[in-house]
Each structure stands twice: as C-alpha cells, then as structure tokens.
Amino acid sequence: MERSEEDLSLGSSEEYRDEEKSIFTEDMNIDNPHEYSKHENLQTYDPKRQPHSFFYLGISGQIDSGEFYDRDGIAIKYDIVKGNRWKLVKGEETGISQHGFRNQGASKRIVWNFPFEVIYSSTNVKDWPQIVLYGSGKDFRGREVIEFYGSVHVPTSPGRHTRYVRMFQPVTSSIFGKFLGWIKGNPASYKDAPNLIAKGEGREVTRVQSGGLLKITFQITQRNLEKYGYKTTSNDD
Amino acid sequence: MATPQLHLIGEIKSAKNFESNRLFCKWEFKYGKHLTVIDGNTEGETFEEEKPDKETAFYFDHPFDIHFKVESMRGWPKVVVEVWEVADDGKYFIAGYGTGTIPCSPGSHNIEIKCWRPKDQTWYGYLRESLLGVRSELATKEMLLSSMERNLFESETTGSITVDIGIIAKDFELYGIKLS
Amino acid sequence: MAETLGLAFVKKEIQLQNNLIGSGFAEPPPSGSKRVSYTGEIVSAIGFDQPKLSITYKVHVPELWEFDDYNSYETLGIIKDLDEVNKRDSITQFSYANIIDYNHQRVYESSFCFPFDLQFLQDTKEESSERPYLLFQVNSLDSWSRHRIEGYGSLQFPSEEGYHEFKVQCWKPRGTFQNELHSFFLGGSVRVLELEDIIQSYKLNEKGEREMIPYDSLPQTEDSGEIVIKLNCLSHSYDLKKENRKQYDIEKKKQDEEIVRRINAERIKLIKQYRKKIKKEILEEEELYTEDYSRSGDYTDSRDYRDSYLPDSYDQSYDDDDRYYNKESHKSYD
C-alpha cells in the first residue's frame, strides 16, 4: 500500500467550488465514512481506495484416493457450490480428473491425487462453500455415466484438514429423477443439480446404498476475516 | 455494532457400532430462548442407508449451515439425535437417542455422541422384544435435555454418531463474552 | 448482482440486515465480578466392573463463587422450567453397558448423555485459586437388584474458556475382608458419607485451626473406571467489554481517518485535473479569439499579459497597427 507524498492542497483556493461538485460520483459524496467502506466492498476490488476490502478464503487441496467396492476405472469430477455473495477471484470451480484404476493386487484403493485451488472473496460468511463430487465410469458402450455422488463442506478453520466423503448411489430415484435426467443429456438443468445434492433437502424420502469412500486433503488460508469481526479459530490466543 | 452472531457449518457425519444394517437419523438443534435463527435449517432427516455387512460404519454426510443471533450467554445450542433402524419388513424402531453440546470455541471440531435407548425391565417387555422385535420409545423427549432425576429409568447403550462441525463467531468480544 | 445496482439499493440491504440483527445483548454483571457458565453433559462411564451403572453428581461451590440463579434476563436456558437451571445435584438413569475396545482392552461402556447447566457469579476482586467442583458417585445395580458403589471421582471446573473434554479417573474404597464378602453376596459397599469429603485435604481441629487429615483415617482405595465429561465454559464480564470496545473504537477511528484521507486525495486529484482541463479550454478559446488581431502567432494572447510583460525600452513601431485599431483603450507608451 503506497502512500503518495505529493502535494495534496489545491493551491490558491482551499475549497472546491459548487459547480465543480458535479464531477464527483455519488460514491464520494458521503457523510459517514464507515458506511462508505461497507458498501464499496460490494464493488470491484481496488486496494488504493479501500482501507479494508473483502475477506478472502483460499481453498487448495487434492482428491487423494478412494475405495469403491468392486468398481474400477472411475473418474472424479468436482464442483464447488457456494452462496451468491461469494465471488471467484482465482481458480476454477469445476474439474475432471483422469480415470483411475486399481493396482493389480488385492488392494481396493484407486489413487488420483487430483489437485484443486480456488480463491473466493465475500463479505458474509453465510452459505459457506461445499465441494460436490461425482464419480463416473465408462459403461459397456464406452459412454461416461455418473454413478456416485457425495458432498462435504470446506473446513472453516485455517490449516490442513483431511476429510472422508462417502460416495452414494441412489437406490430408488424419486427426487433424484431430476438429477438423473440431467445425466442422460439435459444440459439446461445443469446449474440446479449440484445445489440439489449440496443442500440436503429431500433426503428423507430417498434410500441410498454406499458406493465408496473418498479421502480429500484441504489446505485453507484466510485473510481479513478478523477485520470483519469473525473468529474462525481459537489457536492464536 | 451488531449483536453477536454464530455460524454452525458442518455435517452429520457417520453412525458407528449400531447393530442394524439399515438406519437413518433425525437430528435437531435445540437452543435457548435468547438465540434466534436467522438462516438455515435446524432440523432434518438423513438418508435411509443400507450397508453391507462387511462395513463398520454408516456415513450420512448430511450438511447444515445455520446462522444464529445470540443475545445472551445462556442457551448455547445442543444437537439432539434420534437414530431409527428399519427392520426387514419395513417397520421403524428406535436405535438410540443422544444429545451433544456444541462447542463454544471457534474452529473445527469433531463431536461424538454416544447413544442409548430405553430398555424394558419387565418380563413382558423382554418377551415382546425378543419374539416380536418391538421396542419401546420415549413418549416425551423432554427428558433428553433436562437434568431432572432419572433414577427410575433404565436404558441400554447402543452406538455413536459423529458430527463434524465448524464454529464461526462474530463480535463476541465486543460484548465482554470470552469464548476460548 | 449488487454491484451493478446503485448505491441506494446496497445501503438499503445493509440497513435491512442491521435491523434484522439489531444490537441488543444481555447486561454484564457489575464490574469486579464475572459470570461463568458451564454447560455440558456426562457422556459415559468406561471401564467399571459392572455393566449396569448410574452416576450421582453434586456441585461443590467454594468461597467467592455463588450460584447465579435469579438473573432476570437470563434465567431460561433450553428447557423452559426454572428447576432445570443450576441443579445442585441429580442422578442419571441406569444404563446397561456395551462392550467396546478401549486402550487395547475390551471394557464396558455405559452411555448416559446427561446434560447439566450451571451458572456462577465469581468475585474477581480478590485473587483466589478455588474453583467449583463436580463430585461423582458411581452406583451399580446387578441382575439380582443388589446395589453397590463402583467409584468416586471429582472434577475441578476449568479456568479457561472453551470446549473441554475430561476423563475423570475414579477410585473405589476397599474395605476389610468381611466387607468385601458381604458386598459380593448381599450388595452394599463401603461408603463415603458426605461427597464433599473426597476433596477435603484439611480439617478443623478443636482450636479451629487447619490441620491435615492423617492418612491412616482414610479408607484404602483401589482403581476403578473413568467417567467422560464434555463441557463448554463461557464467561461474561464488564471489564473485558470495556477493554475490547476501547480497542475497537481506536481502530475504527484510524480506519475512518484513512478513508477520509483517501477520499480527499481522490477528490483533489479530480479537481486538479478538472481545473487544468478548464484552463486549457479557456486558453484555447482565447487563442482562437486573438488570432484575428495579431500578425504573428508568437505573441501570447491577453492584453494584460502583454502590458505587464513589456520592458521599458520597447520599440513602439511594432505596435502601430494596434494603436490604430484600439485607440480608446490603449495605454500610451509615451
């Protein structure tokens, strides 16, 4: 943050005249500076103008490995679902890994080591991001079919975390009929499907059977959250 | 300066050491009179999951994201859990009740809730249980959260439920509350 | 998205959010005292000899601490009944145990999930290291309905705020051979009469002085199981509130000054640019205006400027044309 030491005075007349006020935008005509700092956080990031800006959440990690019972040749696709106040600063929200196969021996473990890295900025902590995962394999015709899904919240405290996510297969699809319809080739409803899984509504009427377990490692970094008054960890006291 | 706010973000993660192979869990967050929910569901039901015998645990992964407004130190939320098992013919029986206190220090926590279920002491109850598979339930759930004497009650221990929870607290220090 | 909508919309949203949340909170206790709240539960008992157990607990309050029962704002917790709060002693249900693996051994575990909710008022003017205790007595009931005592334990409440998990080790008094025989066949055990005796380390003799209890008068004990307790400790004090608010105000003031400084810098920059632009326009206009009247374009424009600039030894022959055209207002160089 540079502080310019230029001459900030106006010269002969200290005040600006009335007719010159028209050049100011509405932003600069403020009486309460603290209110200004709050609203401008909702605009684009400008470090020279804001003493404290959005808060940032950096999510990086990798999808390490997984165990599916008898299945082989699974590719994992991830999708990050968040509230609408969160804005993507850097990184990609979706990604598809390679097809992974088991070792020839007896171990059931499939290893992908598929990395992801995203940075988000926001002003409000609600609707914390979640990662929704899909596991897909090739059917006998060679088409990609999504069979498993799972979701987990991104951890809230900074540092390194490991999470185990269960991958499910729906047994009877009632509310998931909609979801399956998307898989069969209905790209218009793509936007709804991740939210459906991540929200957890409508789960009481479905029966599932477990398909496997995935291990994900997260590394979380945060910036500016204390300036907003949020405390996410008790480690620095 | 706004009232302190509390965010609970996490999942109802898993159920371990239950005998049955088909379970689902009804969860609810109970909180005191001076807390108000601004956003989020405080109760729900997870999937009904069927697991093969070789597995040791059920994983629900049921997400929740709740935003509270806290006006007093009293009445910190607790999570109340009811685990139901499904018999082969589709009837529902209780597999456990449990309560867990939500931690007050901000950060990521993993809570394990040990569950118990009521046990019939009489011979009649024992016969009913072993021959018909009918179990007794609690008629009123008030006793789960109350510290009134329970010395005339008998229960048996069943499995446990784990909850992965992240706590985010805002502005508690400005009102003189120390959380950690 | 909000950024494409105007400032008015955003201000309204912020106002709505603030109205929804408000800024009220319970009053802290008066300065010099601190309100401490312990909420938690007795989770389970591990490693005892009998499977069917129940736990009796009692709260012991030292000097400088007292129960905060009748606080008009905060008395109601989760259960809307005044009896639930600050229960001095209670007893859990009888719970039949499960067998689990613990520390590479197979032991009994009985779960209770018995909540407790205690609120104290601590006097912080004097320094003291005494804290309240939670005293336990573990009872067992077997299939022949014989009652026995399986252990005693105590937990000192923590001084640090936050979420804690404790495992309270318990001991069981060991009686004589006859006592043990009686206990095995008919039930009953050596008992400690007052639960508070288990944390007493001194007693008052006839003169009223403190004296250590001689170890011979205490019963022999043997190791018993563990009780798992999870609790939250929260505290509320007026002094902390003042201190934190002071810091917050200082930072806020710094931030406001910084915002004002930056806005003024931007404004001044804009004004300077604006004024330069205006001046340039005026100069260009005057250039256009004076181009008709001057022969060479090297002269500057305004008459005032020329008059003040010209030295005394100026040659008048250059101004012939001007004098001709502007007789009235022309200054004479004579």
TrEMBL record, chain A:
Residues 1-31 are annotated as: Disordered. It is found in: Cytoplasm, Cytoskeleton, Cilium basal body. PANTHER family: B9 DOMAIN-CONTAINING, B9 DOMAIN-CONTAINING PROTEIN 1. Keywords: Cell projection, Cilium biogenesis/degradation, Cytoplasm, Cytoskeleton. This is B9 domain-containing protein 1. Residues 14-24 have a biased composition (Basic and acidic residues). Its main location: cytoplasm. It comes from Euplotes crassus.
Automatic annotation (TrEMBL), chain B:
It comes from Euplotes crassus. Pfam families: B9-C2. Keywords: Cell projection, Cilium biogenesis/degradation, Cytoplasm, Cytoskeleton. GO terms for cellular component: MKS complex. InterPro entries: C2_B9-type_dom. It is found in: Cytoplasm, Cytoskeleton, Cilium basal body. Its main location: cytoplasm. This is B9 domain-containing protein 2. One of its GO terms (biological process) is cilium assembly. The lineage of its organism: Eukaryota, Sar, Alveolata, Ciliophora, Intramacronucleata. It comes from the Eukaryota.
TrEMBL record, chain C:
It is found in: Cytoplasm, Cytoskeleton, Cilium basal body. Keywords: Cell projection, Cilium biogenesis/degradation, Cytoplasm, Cytoskeleton. The keyword Cytoplasm applies. GO terms for cellular component: MKS complex. InterPro entries: C2_B9-type_dom. The keyword Ion transport does not apply. Residues 290-334 are annotated as: Disordered. It holds the Pfam family B9-C2. Residues 292-309, 323-334 have a biased composition (Basic and acidic residues). It comes from the Eukaryota. Coiled coil: none annotated. GO terms for biological process: cilium assembly. PANTHER family: B9 DOMAIN-CONTAINING, TECTONIC-LIKE COMPLEX MEMBER MKS1. This is Uncharacterized protein.
